[in-house]
Amino acid sequence: MDKLIKLLAAELNQPENYVNNVVTLIDEGNTIPFIARYRKELHGAMDDTVLRNLEDRLNYLRNLDKRREEVKRSIEEQGKLTEELAAAIDNAATLAEVEDLYRPYKQKRRTRATVAKEKGLEPLAILLFAQAPDCPEPSVAAAEYIDPEKGVETGEDALQGANDIIAEMVSDDAEVRKLLREYMLKHSVLTSQAATEEDSVYRLYYDFKQPVPRLQGHQVLAINRGEREELLKVAVLTEREQSLPLLYKMVVKPGSPATEFVRAAAEDSYDRLIYPSLEREIRNTLTDMANEGAIGQFALNLKPLLMQSPVKGKVAMGLDPGYRNGCKVAVVDPTGKVLDTAVVYPTFGEKQKQEAIAKLAGLIKKHAVEVIAIGNGTASKETEIMTAELLKVVGAGVSYMVVSEAGASVYSASKLTAE
Question: N or C end: fewer C-beta atoms under 10 angstroms in the chain?
Fold first, then answer.
């Protein structure tokens, strides 16, 4: 827990004791709007955006820790967990990195590599993949593994099995996948083609190409819908000739009789295993980013509706009652524009109440306020009594009403309000 708190504090540039307090409040079931408004003394008045980022990051890091332990436990049960591997898993900064490290040990469905291992060809694959300078020619090495009883009829059969094993070893290498994933995200192109001759709302995407880094969220979501409706065929294309040299650099060692054999196995790994897998990952990443963007756009469209003037054609004053933090005041014009804000303390005693009345009377006169809205939450009754006295001071022409605060606290501490 201490490590988690330190990490969150460093990432968010916040004191550790405040971060620890927020984590405790979240674990107790408190919501971000509640913490932002009513527990300021415990978090140093962090705004709701910081608190929400903290909660999101907390959940991610906890899921990451949980997955690390699950992966280490699974590998340990197989008797294959080494100190170096455990350290690599502990130091993995993302879930994707943890999954890449776990990939060689994950229980897989029956593959061509597992079939080859069952035929006793794994030692041959390891020998050739090492690419030692004194390694025998692959055909010579393969001759020793011919065994008709195991289904290895010829040296070619043995080499094919070794190729399948090496291809899977390359595909399961975490560093290989990380490098190629980063390259594909930067240099791939998303394409879509018509899957039918009939016209549809997806006609814009019947012959569409766009580099992955330049894709817009609405394009991704539209293409996904067209694919689900079987009107579009979608692919992520990467220049094979540009990707393969990156792969060769990591797995091919020159100067060995087995070099060309490993090069061919690496190509097979890329075409058959790595590329299709990373293509799915990139599609998922694009979809997640597009969904986030769609939510943001929805918030943008909702803002004008929420910010409409509360009473048509009138300057309004809003009172948000409260005890400890006082009564928050805002004055808005007929268009909803904020003209003034203040905080008064009518519940702190008679003197403070009279000061509040004087201050509010000044705001009413300054901005020609015609209506006052009082929230029906904590300290609403006391604030209403104070408002009745206030109206005696300002005279006729001003009225008040008590309004529901339902949803107000959640909205006031939302991302939309912060923006």
Answer: N
